[in-house]
Amino acid sequence: MAILEVEKIRKDFGSLEVLRDVSFSLEKGETLSMIGASGSGKTTLLRCLNFLERPTAGVIRVGGEVIFDAADPATTGESEIRRRRMHFGMVFQSFNLFPQYTALQNVTLARELKEKEQPGYKEHKKEILHQIREEGEAVLDSVGLKEKVDYYPHQLSGGQQQRVAIARALMMKPDILCFDEPTSALDPELTGEVLKVIRKLAGQRTTMVIVTHEMQFAREVSDKILFLDSGLVTEYGTPEDVFERPTQERTRQFLERYFEDKR
Ligand code: ADP
Ligand code: MG
Fold first, then answer.
1. pLDDT (0 to 100) of residue 74
2. Any ligand 1 atom below 6 A from CB of 39
3. Measured between alpha carbons, how far is residue 28 from residues 9, 197, 257 in Å?
4. Is the separation of the CB atoms in 204 and 225 below 8 Å?
5. Atom 15, ligand 1: which residue's CA is nearest?
6. What is the residue extent of each domain of the chain?
7. Pairing state of beta strands 16-27 and 2-13?
8. Which pairs count as long-range contacts for 106-111, CB under 8 Å and 24+ apart, including other chains?
9. Which residues surround ligand 2, an ion (CB under 5 A)?
10. For residues 68 and 58, what is the distance between their CA atoms, to the nearest angstrom?
11. What's the N-to-C CA distance of the chain in angstroms?
């Protein structure tokens, strides 16, 4: 069964139609990479999935449950947003770590806040915090930052900061982990270490939606490729379909330009 179903999502900013009837679905454990020119709506789509933007129209289902339907007010209330957001994790282009917290604190903060709201927190506070700390250390270890848990963001390279951001997202155990151009703020020599972590997550069958300009990487790790052109899905299929046999001339030109620049 599909873990994520996105059905005819539209997003308008005033009279600007940024997303037009975007639909796709993802099975548990699949990786979908979203590619397309700058301004085609990729970030807006990820922001809609994370409810940082509210879609103008459309339906989002997670595990078969409708978590958002623009036509059903019962699913669109502000009070629902936090619960809905829990399904998704987000890794931003610019890391967005708290500068005043260590790597470990950045990773554990949201979990601590969540646990505080659970019944019985006060009585078991010490054990719970200890447990979260151990989990945080294990997650940081899994992204290769065992030695850096007590470092502050300014003491870490961009690649290390982005790996902390990935660990922070993993810590919340989202159903779907989203990445918005996770390496485009990094120097080329640091890109590889972040892609390596994402590749490992794909190998572990983490369900992911990745916006990226790293075409070769997208081709290698993805089960599905979605090509967005001015807010429309113009290609949607396996990496082989999209890279070898694009249906649109515009896609072919886009890919050709990309691979020519890379040469
Ligand atoms: P991409 O990530 O593919 O580069 P974006 O989703 O950032 O594209 O932007 C798609 C279009 O939506 C652009 O024309 C952008 O200017 C517009 N847009 C994005 N966010 C807003 C906003 N908050 N208000 C108005 N227009 C926006
Ligand atoms: Mg963007």
1. 87
2. yes
3. 21, 19, 33
4. no
5. 39
6. 4-261
7. antiparallel
8. 106/153, 106/164, 106/165, 106/168, 107/136, 107/139, 107/140, 107/164, 107/167, 107/168, 107/171, 108/132, 108/133, 108/135, 108/136, 108/171, 109/168, 110/168, 110/171, 110/172, 111/135, 111/136, 111/171, 111/172
9. 43
10. 8
11. 41
Overall fold of domain 4-261: Rossmann fold (3.40.50)
Instruction: Specify the amino acid at residue 24.
Output: F
pLDDT tens per residue, range 19-75: 999 999 999 999 999 999 999 999 999 999 999 999 999 999 999 999 999 999 888
3-state secondary structure of 15: coil
Integer Cα distance of 128 and 118 in angstroms:
11
pLDDT in tens, 195-215: 999 999 999 999 999 999 999
* Lookup: tokens for 29: 């454990």
Determine the distance separating the centroid of ligand 1 and the alpha carbon of 217, expressed in angstroms.
Answer: 25
